[in-house]
Structure formats: structure tokens, C-alpha cells
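Can anyone check this?
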Amino acid sequence: MERPLLVVLLLVGLVIGCAVGSAYARARRGWNDYQTVKRSVPGARRGAWSLIRGVTVKAVVIALLLFGAVAYAAVGADEETAGPAPSQSPGGSGQPHR
């Protein structure tokens, strides 16, 4: 009678041991992954701020260019520096009449 009881206890112990062992391995893997990510956060944060800074600089440059273009269009062409406008010649031959 003792032999079947020992076999059952051994099987129950093996099942519980496998469950506890797999839970421990999963927890250890999770802890290692957490530590790896924790170490990589400062570098990722610096990279994110660098990207944000680059986009901000580009947006400011584009906004300044657009503002300059609108200001130039609002002022219009300077008539004094444009030179005389071409005039229509009277007659069709192009040679003066005498």
C-alpha cells in the first residue's frame, strides 16, 4: 500500500515542481527583459528629443520661409527698379516714314 502512495506523491510533486519551475523561469525572463529596457530608456529618450528638435527646427525654417514669401508678395514688385515698360510702336513696318 505504501508504494502506490509514494508514486502518487511523487507525481504530484513533479507536477507542482514543473509549475513552480516554469513560473520562476518566466518571472526571471521578465525581470531580465525589464532590466534591459530600463537601461535602454535614457538613450531612447535622448533619441526621441533629438528627433523632436529636428522636426521643430525644420518647421520653424519652413514657417519663416513662408512668412518671407507672403511678405514679399504683399509688398509687390518695386516699380522703380523694374525698368521702363515696352511700348507699342505706331505702324507696322518698323521703319520711320519720311
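Reply from J.R.: I decoded it. The chain has a mean pLDDT of 86.
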